[in-house]
Amino acid sequence: MREAIQGLVAEGALYTLFQPIIDGATREPIGYEALTRGPEGSPLESPTALIAAAASAGLTVQLERMCLESALRSFRSLRLEGRLFLNLLPQALLDWPHLAEWLGAQCAKHEIDPHDIVLEVTEHGLTEDETLLAAAVAPLRMLGCDIAIDDLGAGSSGLKTWAAIRPDYVKVDRYFVAGIEHDAVRGEILRSVVDMGRVTGCRVIAEGIENREQFALVVELGVDYLQGFLLGRPQRLPQLDAAALSGLETITSGPTADCAEHLVLPIPGIPADMPVGDVVEIFRGNANWTALAVLEAERPVGLVYRDELLIFLSRPLHPEIYNRKPVTSVMTRETVQIEARARLDQVSRLVTARSARPQRDAFIITRNGLYLGLGRTFDLLRQITAQQIQAARQSNPLTGLPGNREIQRHLSQWLARRRHFVACHLDLDHFKAFNDAYGYARGDQVLLHVAQVISQIVRPRVDFVGHVGGDDFVFLLRSQDWTLRLIALIEELAASLVNFHSSEHREAGWLAGTDRDGAPRHFPLLSASIGAFEVDGTGSNTPDLIAESLRQTKALAKTKPGCACLIAAGDRIIDLVSRAESAHRSVLEAVPRSAARSNAYIL
Question: What CA–CA distance (Å, rounded) separates 222 from 220?
Fold first, then answer.
């Protein structure tokens, strides 16, 4: 095998395949990953065999050089557009001290802009000191290349590497995408990676997309870019799978009020070689501009602040010395750069945590690493305040949970995207009698408690909880373990609601009151009834159908003593407390008229 790899390296008998990487929102390619293969049909055709053989022969750097040459040559000859993603082993990166100079010469030879190069450092099997890797990638950044961590999650040091080298891209290992439609845990991990990416200005790529469900889920989770057989297989001449793409749901990507893109001020950037004197003239011609972003190949490298520049140039001889110098000689390199898709709460944490002086109000907003515009802290605070006011208007004033409008919006979105979820409607049994006996203030305490229990049981940012009003709560569960969560909810409410009654009422097991017709009656203690409906994600369900099923199922649940939860699932009605099942017929046939009328909820 040693002789084989030596001959392969000597002859340059490699070829390159390309696989497209697409924007999840636009479904347009943003670049291609270069994948090297050995001679077809040979034992060294597989990249894994190639790497292992080269390592055993001590030819790792030579093989990497040959792979990069093949990729650059093929990329140019095919005239592909977008970014070129090149794989690089960490060991080769450390053992190749003049890689940046060599790569720069190769880019010039093949007429490829280094800013279009993304070097993927694999995380799998990484054992080297992350600080050494950070030092090794620095010259490549100076050349203009972006850096990516490949196979995040396949090894044990991915987050340490992320913190050390501050990548521009992170490619999540395909393990976390495979089966994501059936495994909520993998989805939660991917969601966390997306959040970290938005905070650090790093774009996230999900590999291994093989079906429409995976595509829809990773896009919904906020992943920036996607790669996989569904979208296009590795080929010498890469092509997108037009048939597969045409069947994918459309995802809108315009700016929303809860992301950084909403804050963009379209103030143009200035080139890094612009003389300081010209920058001063720009500021004089635009009195409202407090800062300008300095760009190299459309990528921000710093900021120059109006007041600081004018004060600096007011010193003796400074205009004569600096007016002809490039703006990089006076700019601030330590700036806050935020990806356009970052949520406002993430933007706020980044801006308020920066070490720069507070009077520096501007920060840079980018899209895919390219300059988009400037943001201002004042606008950020104003938008967050407006967001909070809007949320308060649409929330229940007692519990702070989203109201009917947000419930409707979530339900419609999940139905449109054909999500599998369980819709639940909870209300309290005998709540009027409780209020009559204890007063509305005590009743409000019960409602706050119920809201807190539901919110603690569901999974944040996966499930949804809303409060229609009074003792009516609606929650939508996408968590895979929704059955266990509903059981836990019923058990917690059964154990805790009784404690809101006096010791006398608890001992008696009832309280005296009057019914809706004014007749005296003994009422049972507080309990909760939940009607649930399993939405299968086929697209055959409508809000009206769900509302009717919830109404019927909850009405039947209210005929059960104590806390109860009934679920309409397919052709079955399941009692979650007794685990009994019955045929899913018109359940109102078994429901007393009084129960069917009580607290009917319309979505």
Answer: 5
DSSP-derived letter for residue 303 is: E
233: left (phi over 0), alpha (psi -120 to 50) or beta: beta
For residue 99, what are the CA distances in angstroms to 105, 123, 164, 190, 512? Answer: 10, 19, 20, 33, 85
Least Cα distance to 541 among 425, 416, 426 occurs for 416
Quote the tokens at residue 545.
């159908």
Return the structure tokens found at 439.
Answer: 């007063």
Q: How many CA atoms lie within 13 A of 354 on its CB side?
A: 23
Of residues 257, 271, 520, the one with CA closest to residue 383: 257
**Could you tell me how many helices (H) and strands (E) the chain has, helices first?**
22, 23
CB 142 within 8 A of CB 163: no
Query: What is the sign, positive or negative, of the torsion defined by CA atoms of 501, 503, 507, 511?
Result: negative
Q: What is the pLDDT of residues 409-426, one digit of tens each?
A: 889 888 887 778 999 999
Contact 562, 464 (CB under 8 A): no
Residues 467-495: tens digit of each pLDDT: 999 999 999 998 878 999 999 999 999 99
pLDDT mean across residues, the chain:
85
- Residues 6+ positions from 43 with CB-CB distance below 8 Å: 1, 4, 49
Task: Assess contact for 269 and 302: CB atoms under 8 A.
Answer: no
Q: Whose CA is closest to 501, among 483, 470, 524, 521? A: 524
| pLDDT on residue 529 | 96
Q: Rg for the chain (alpha carbons), in Å?
A: 31
Half-sphere exposure of 489 (CA within 13 A, CB side): 31
- Please name the residue ranges forming H helices in 558-599: 593-597
- Tokens representing residue 300 in the block: 């921000």
Q: What is the pLDDT of residues 429-447, one digit of tens each?
A: 999 999 999 999 999 999 9
HSE-CB of 278 using CA atoms within 13 angstroms: 13
Count of beta carbons in the 10 Å neighbourhood of residue 285: 8
pLDDT at 500: 96
Mention every residue, 6+ apart, whose C-beta is less than 8 A from residue 129: none
29 in helix, strand or coil? strand
**What domains are there in the chain, each with its CATH number?**
16-36+66-246 (3.20.20.450), 260-384 (3.10.580.10), 398-597 (3.30.70.270)
Q: Are 71 and 16 contacting, i.e. CB atoms less than 8 angstroms apart?
A: yes
Residue 216 structure tokens: 């829809």
Structure tokens at 180: 């994501």
Nearest to 202 by CA among 158, 232, 243: 158
CA dihedral of 160, 166, 170, 176, whole degrees rounded to 10: 20
The model carries a pTM of 0.61
Q: Is the pLDDT of residue 15 over 50?
A: yes
Distances (CA, A) of 312 to 272, 317, 330, 533: 19, 10, 9, 68
* Phi-psi group of 562: left, alpha or beta (phi > 0 → left; psi -120 to 50 → alpha; rest → beta): left
For 514-541, b/e burial (b = at least 16 CB within 10 A) is eeeeeeeeebebbbbbbbbbbbebeeeb
Cα–Cα distance measured from residue 6 to residue 134, given in angstroms and rounded to the nearest whole number: 31
